[in-house]
Design goal:
28% helix, alpha/beta, 257 residues, seven-stranded mixed β-sheet
């Protein structure tokens, strides 16, 4: 499949499929090996069809499936050195790592991947832009705030997969401990609906074709709330780009290029 499809998004596990004319990639594999295969089957693929897996950081909701993938396949795992070290500390099987350097673009088959630094409470977290077939895709979640560097890298994307983790009022009102609230709302936590909308305003251009709102909190957000907050801000800026939610339990809107 030449296109993009979020297969799972949220604290229960993250996995996004992106395919070019020649290459099939998964970004993060925060699901069980069984679930990974079930999700891929829904878009008529198997794990053996995947050319590489690209990892953003070492939190379990992004790497849960790596150990079983390493046991059953030789699929390359693309990540930076600090993330690879962190993965090796929590699994017994060594994956087939291919190490990239944060901030340095590289080419895998026909896709140019640019991993850029973001603020999150892990060793060396990254977001990505991908360029192939005259398209640019941005994948950017798990960040406490959107720096100028983030906005710079997300310029001129055709498709955006961007975090809208929480509604701030819902975080304050929830029953979770104060330490949780401080983490989520802090500069190494997660992006709010409002911050997501403001980032979209910064990077929007007339050729932006679709935006996924991703990594929604099940407790401190709601798809309707996220869509309303972001779409209202976009309307106030005369932005009409289509929005959709990247869901946790079901695969999301499939876009074929």
């Amino acid at each position: 499949m030449r296109g993009i499809c979020p297969l799972s998004s949220g604290s229960g596990g993250n996995m996004i499929y992106v395919g070019s004319e020649k290459t099939k990639l998964l970004f993060d594999v925060g699901l069980s090996f069984k679930k990974i295969n079930e999700k891929l089957a829904e878009i008529d693929l198997t794990i053996d069809d995947i050319d590489a897996i690209v990892i953003s950081h070492e939190h379990s909701d992004h790497i849960k499936g790596i150990e079983q993938i390493a046991k059953h396949t030789t699929i390359p795992i693309l990540c930076n050195g600090d993330t690879a070290k962190a993965i090796c500390e929590v699994i017994d099987t060594r994956p087939n790592f291919q190490i990239f350097s944060t901030g340095e673009s590289f080419t895998f088959q026909d896709i140019t991947i640019n991993p850029f630094s973001i603020q999150h409470d892990t060793l060396d977290p990254v977001a990505f832009t991908l360029e192939f077939d005259s398209l640019k895709v941005g994948i950017c979640t798990d960040l406490g705030f959107a720096s100028n560097l983030v906005a710079h890298h997300l310029q001129n994307c055709d498709y955006l997969y961007i975090e809208a983790n929480h509604e701030e009022a819902m975080v304050h009102a929830c029953a979770r401990p104060l330490i949780y609230k401080k983490r989520v709302l802090g500069r190494q936590g997660h992006l709010s609906n409002k911050a997501c909308a403001e980032l979209i305003e910064k990077v929007h251009h007339n050729n932006l074709k679709h935006i996924y709102l991703a990594h929604l909190s099940s407790e401190c957000n709601d798809p309707d709330v996220a869509l309303k907050t972001v779409s209202d801000h976009m309307k106030s800026c005369d932005i009409e780009t289509p929005l959709s939610i990247a869901f946790q339990e079901t695969i999301s809107k499939k876009i074929e290029f």
